[in-house]
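User: Predict the structure for this protein chain, please.
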Amino acid sequence: MKFALLAAAALTGSTANAEIYFKEQFNDDGWKDRWTVSSDWKSKSELGEWTNTAGEWYADESDKGIKTTNDARFYGLSAPMAKTFKSSNKKDLVIQYSVKHEQKIDCGGAYIKLLPGGKKFDSKKFGGDTPYGVMFGPDICGANKRTHVIFHYDKKDDNLLIKKDVGCETDQLSHLYTLVLRPDNTFEVFVDNKSVRAGKLEDEFDFLPEKEIKDPDQSKPDDWVDVKEIVDPEDVKPEGYDDIPEEIPDPDATKPDDWDDEDDGEWEAPMMDNPDYKGPWKPKMIPNPDYKGPWVHPMIANPEYSYDDNMYAVCKDGCTHVGFELWQVKSGTIFDDIIVTDSLEEAQKFAEETFFKKKDGEKTMFEEAEKKRREEEAQAAMDEEEDFDMEDMDMMGGDEF
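Assistant: Here is the predicted structure, written as C-alpha cells:
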C-alpha cells in the first residue's frame, strides 16, 4: 500500500507542471464547432462524412468518438489547439489518440497530423499538400501494415519517414497510439502503452548525411585481381565428348507382338536418357593464384557532415492545429481520446481515465457480438442446407409420377 501511495504521489508530481496543448474526447455535440471539415480540399462527392458514435461495441454508449462512414472517400478534418506548441521551448512533444477499425479495414489511413499555420491556417483547404510537423499513426493497405512516424525537417524542407517500419494493430478493437519526441533528439512509439520502438533520430531517420563517404580520389587499381577462380589450363575436353548423345534407344524395349510393320510402319524403340551423357562440357575451375579479394573503397570523413542539435524541432515556428487527412477504401474507423502534451506521464494518466477504463468492457461486448454472429452464420448455413435437401426431395418425388 505504501509503495502504491508513493507511486501515485510521484505520478501526480510529474504531471503537475505538464502543459496540455490539445485534448478531445468527442463526448458532446459541440465537437462539430471545434472541428472543421476540409470542404474546400475536395469536391463534396469525394469527401466522406463523419459521425459521432460509440460504435458497435463499447464499454459505455455515451463515450463516443468520430467515425468514417463512406467507402472510397477522402476525409479531412482539423481543429485548433488550445495552446501553441513551440519546439524552441525544448520540451517533450507527446501525441496520443485511440483508433478502432470496426470494419476489418483492408485499405485506409488512420494517422493524425500536427500542423503549423496559426491564424493563417486554412481549415477548409486542409489536405494532403498542407505542410505539417508530424504525421503519426496506423496505415493499412493490403500487405502493408505500418504505423507512420514522419517528421518534417526544415533543413531539407522534407518530410522524413522512419527507415524501418513500425507495425500496427489490425483487429477490430480500440488501440492506443502514443508518440514521444524529445529535445535530446530521441523518440519513442507506444502501442497500448507498450514501447514498440525507441531510438535516436539520426539512426532511425535520414536527418543527417553519412559521417563517412568513399574517398573520391581513390579508385580500384587497374591490376587489382578480384576474380576468385580461373579455368584450369591443364583441363582439356575428352576426345569424342561432343559425340555422346543426350538420348539413346531403350535397350530393354521390344517390339509389341501385335505390331504390324505394314500397317504401323517400321517399329522404333522408345528413347531414354543416356546415362553416359554429362551435359555440355565445362572446364574445371581452380583457385586464382593472383586473387587479392574484393577491393574495398577507402572511406574518409564527410566534409558535409555536422550534427544538428535541433533535429527534434518539428514545430520550429509553432504547431497550432491537429488534423486527420485520410483516404479510406473501407470506412468504419473510430478515433477518440486525443491529447497533445509535453508529458508522457500526463498522456498515460489520460489513457488510464479513458482508453484503459473502457478497454475490457469493449472487448467483452465485441466477443459477445462475434459469438452471436458465428451462431447466426452457422444457423443460416444449416437452413440453406435444409432448403437444398427439400428441393432435392421435391424433384425426386416429381419423377415418380
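DSSP finds six helices and 22 strands in the chain.
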